[in-house]
Amino acid sequence: MKSAPHYYIGLMSGTSLDGIDAALVAIGRDTPPQLLGTLAAEMPDTLHEQLLHLCHAQEVSFAELAAAEDAFCRLQAEAVKALLTAQQLSPEQIQAVGSHGQTVEHAPDGHNGGPAYTLQLDNPSLLAELTGCTVVADFRRRDLAAGGQAAPLAQAFHQALFGRQEGEQLILNLGGFANLTWLPSNSKTPVTGFDTGPANVLLDAWFSKHQGGRFDQNGAWAASGNVDPELLERLLDAPFFQQPPPRSTGRELFHLPWLERHLAGHETPDDVQATLAELTAVSVAQGIQQLPFSHQGVTLITCGGGAHNADLMARLAAHLPFATFASPSSYGWPEDWIEAGAFAWLAHQRLHQLPGNLPSVTGARGPRVLGGVYAP
Ligand SMILES: Nc1ncnc2c1ncn2[C@@H]1O[C@H](COP(=O)(O)OP(=O)(O)OP(=O)(O)O)[C@@H](O)[C@H]1O
Ligand SMILES: CC(=O)N[C@H]1[C@@H]2OC[C@@H](O2)[C@@H](O)[C@@H]1O[C@H](C)C(=O)O
């Protein structure tokens, strides 16, 4: 007998700090997770600035942390309530809300010899109180405690979503950072995945500094410049790009001062933007070329905000002539909703005491049940 699907909400606010994505997902035993509804809550400028400051400041007060966390949590709660209203659902009909929280620092290999840590601002107690829903949160730290990178985590969800398709699949998420999933055609070969490096984070920062606004629409400004091969080579020299998986990264490594340290001084701003777009494309291509399969005819499913950037996609296509590009929309999941969907699925895994991580991806000592549960 088939079991009825249950409803979960996934909340994701990524490293781009562009907003909170809420996805309503039906999860049943016999079918892949299904996307039923979505809601995007734009990040107000004040909260965007607060969070950006927390990501990069040398010193932060507890009061600043608390204020940002509170504002962030209230925005999440509004997103959940608006999604429930739009879908005519009550909190009792939701099994759980999976909340990623806002990453403000990620140091899975420790910092200056200190302990490994990853910090997501989140207040699942307040979120449960404000929404009346069960909340599952703190997904990353159990993987870290088991010796893993705590990121990326979406690979297990990619497997649940796309793993039933024929042949090899690559899934590329182009968010603030880019991460890759390889689903081998042979189910005995473990799934591989890792962060390839920056995707939009440097593009956004450089655009904002020189053009104003949050991002370079369709990569038009990048397309107007020329790649500076010497700058590209200096950027690609960063040790992260040589590091074997498991690997994950964040704003700690790739930020505006890091870029500016590599400039010779004669580059024009549009050429720098073109070079940054090329850096994303080349680092993704290098990540794919390292994978042990024939590459020919592989399907590459692209998701995340960078999938809307025509210039970036053209650069990727030029470096990956063997791949057939596909949109996840053909599987019922538009590109912007995969990550939020992942956290709905991870909440389901937690409630069913099932593992959420893939040790072959994060490097953890074994599969682990991720996250804590906060009753309404
Ligand atoms: N039309 C577009 N043209 C160019 N870039 C775009 C477009 N739409 C979105 N983006 C880029 O996508 C970014 C947002 O992507 P996304 O929401 O996937 O990031 P994220 O979830 O914050 O990141 P991460 O996956 O690293 O956590 C924007 O900051 C912008 O750089
Ligand atoms: C520490 C952290 O928040 N990492 C994010 C970030 O954004 C993309 C990439 O870097 C990935 O490692 C991860 O997010 C997705 C959701 C993941 O864990 O799969």
TrEMBL record:
<dbReference type="GO" id="GO:0016301">
    <property type="term" value="F:kinase activity"/>
</dbReference>
<keyword id="KW-0418">Kinase</keyword>
<keyword id="KW-0547">Nucleotide-binding</keyword>
<keyword id="KW-0808">Transferase</keyword>
<comment type="function">
    <text>Catalyzes the specific phosphorylation of 1,6-anhydro-N-acetylmuramic acid (anhMurNAc) with the simultaneous cleavage of the 1,6-anhydro ring, generating MurNAc-6-P. Is required for the utilization of anhMurNAc either imported from the medium or derived from its own cell wall murein, and thus plays a role in cell wall recycling.</text>
</comment>
<dbReference type="Pfam" id="PF03702">
    <property type="entry name" value="AnmK"/>
</dbReference>
<feature type="binding site">
    <location>
        <begin position="14"/>
        <end position="21"/>
    </location>
    <ligand>
        <name>ATP</name>
    </ligand>
</feature>
<dbReference type="InterPro" id="IPR043129">
    <property type="entry name" value="ATPase_NBD"/>
</dbReference>
<keyword id="KW-0119">Carbohydrate metabolism</keyword>
<comment type="pathway">
    <text>Amino-sugar metabolism; 1,6-anhydro-N-acetylmuramate degradation.</text>
</comment>
<comment type="similarity">
    <text>Belongs to the anhydro-N-acetylmuramic acid kinase family.</text>
</comment>
<protein>
    <recommendedName>
        <fullName>Anhydro-N-acetylmuramic acid kinase</fullName>
        <ecNumber>2.7.1.170</ecNumber>
    </recommendedName>
</protein>
<keyword id="KW-0067">ATP-binding</keyword>
<dbReference type="InterPro" id="IPR005338">
    <property type="entry name" value="Anhydro_N_Ac-Mur_kinase"/>
</dbReference>
<comment type="pathway">
    <text>Cell wall biogenesis; peptidoglycan recycling.</text>
</comment>
